[in-house]
Amino acid sequence: MDIRTPVFCGIVPPHILDRLTRADDPAVSGPARRTLQADAAHRTGRRLTTVLGAAARAVAAPADGPRRTVYDAQNGTVLPGTRVRGEGEEAARDATVNRAYAGLGATFELLTAYGRSSIDGAGLPLDASVHYDEKYGNAFWNGEQMVFGDGDGEIFLDFTVAVDVIAHELAHGLTQYTANLSYFGQPGALNESMSDVLGSLVKQRTLGQSADEADWLIGAGLLTPRVEGVALRSMKAPGTAYDDDVLGKDPQPATMEEYVSTGRDNGGVHINSGIPNHAFYLLATRLGGRAWERAGQIWFDVLTGGALPVDADFGSFARLTVAAAKARYGEGEEQEAVLKAWSQVGVKTSE
Amino acid sequence: MRIQVRRTGGFAGIERHAEVDTSARADASEVHALAERAVAEGRDTPPIGVPDGFSYQLTVDGRTVYCSDPRLTEAQSQLISLVLKEGL
């Protein structure tokens, strides 16, 4: 089965469906809101090239620092909600607001270290809404901004408690503005993996950890104490993050031998991301030192380099990382380590 | 009326499924009206949704429709909350 073809792909493109249903959608209040949200969904669903729809929010001159705004959705679903903290303003009384603000800053700093001004490369302001909906156990990127729920209290805590989760969501924005990997099957799993990689790197950089010191977990601290698990995903040991009566067992594979073919979860985007996640972990630990420096730079170069197609599979991504390692570091230990990492997870780097 | 909700995706990628049978409920007629609205406003194929957003599959008396965050209609949102909270 060719998993690059979504199982439930209709004949009418999703973004057209989005348009058709938009007019009668009572969940959106008011024409302005409707336009914004529909545009956002439209842009995220699009499989075309990058930033076509983003002109309204982009700014002309690159900014030196981040321009963050945190909103409070006040347990409703109207976005963005009430503005509670803008750039340079003093801390709010709400720790959730401050965690979101700090997480956006930490992510912005990593992008700056890679020479990129915000997620669009042109200083795009970063917006996040917290306290979305009631007992909402999720966080997502809506094409315009990050959205964080408080967690249901039974399985998940507040989604801002983990800086890697905040960076993960913002990285979806970076991907949207660059390779714009489609959110299905292998390109979708690569999209997810890029977010996990950048999420983990932001956490490691914030904590000043080397690749050997890092826990390589995604969402550590997010699960309530009653859940049998340490996090949602493990890049070091995919499939081992949780094993719980209610949640079930972490379904992530570490290698192509265990690849999961499914139509659910957009073709397993949160499942098979374990394979490129583990390849990155193997690369970073083989190289040693700070993972965001050489290993992270290679991944970042591929994501933003312009050669990664929207429908890239693991193999085409892997080949580009080999080329990127050579382009930046020559035919040395970096390229060797990249080849070795992909080989260990069973992804071919030769055509 | 049998109402089933299957939620997939989300940051965690963990699936949830719940079902409500309205036959013994005092508020059956209200729930029926809600379910009919939610289904009428759904789609026959899953919308792509947004990265890490939840996707929902609603099945009411054998008919299945799809919707996804963050663009649920009011009826869809209410029905999903009700079934995931009170369903088995």
Question: What's the short version?
Answer:
With 351 residues, chain A is an alpha/beta fold. In chain A, 40% of the residues lie in helices and 9% in strands.
Low-confidence stretches of chain B: none
User: Please, how many helices of chain A?
Assistant: 10
- Largest binding interface between chains: A-B, 54 and 30 residues
Largest sheet data of chain A:
5 strands, mixed
Describe what you observe in this structure.
The complex is a heterodimer of chains A (about 350) and B (about 90). With about 350 residues, chain A is of the alpha/beta class. Chain A has 3 domains: about 1-45, no CATH class; about 55-160, Elastase, domain 1, CATH 3.10.170; about 185-345, Neutral Protease Domain 2 (Neutral Protease, domain 2). Chain A has helices at about 15-20, 30-45, 95-115, 165-175, 185-205, 265-270, 275-285, 295-305, 315-330, 335-345, and strands at about 70, 80-85, 125-130, 140, 145-150, 215-220, 235, 245, 250. In chain A, the strands form 3 sheets. Chain A has a 5-stranded mixed β-sheet with strand order 2-1-3-5-4, with helices on one face. In chain A, strands 6-7 form a two-stranded antiparallel sheet. In chain A, helix 8 (about 295-305) crosses helix 9 (about 315-330). Chain A is globular, with a radius of gyration of 19 Å. By secondary structure, chain B is of the alpha+beta class. Chain B has one domain (about 1-85). Chain B contains 2 helices and 4 strands. Chain B has helices at about 30-40, 75-85; strands at about 1-10, 15-20, 55-60, 65-70. Chain B has a 4-stranded antiparallel β-sheet with strand order 2-1-3-4, with helices on one face. In chain B, a hairpin with a 6-residue loop joins strand 1 (about 1-10) and strand 2. In chain B, helix 1 crosses helix 2 (about 75-85). The radius of gyration of chain B is 12 Å and the shape is globular. Chain B starts with a strand and ends with a helix. The interface of A and B includes residues 21, 24, 45, 147 and 156 of A.
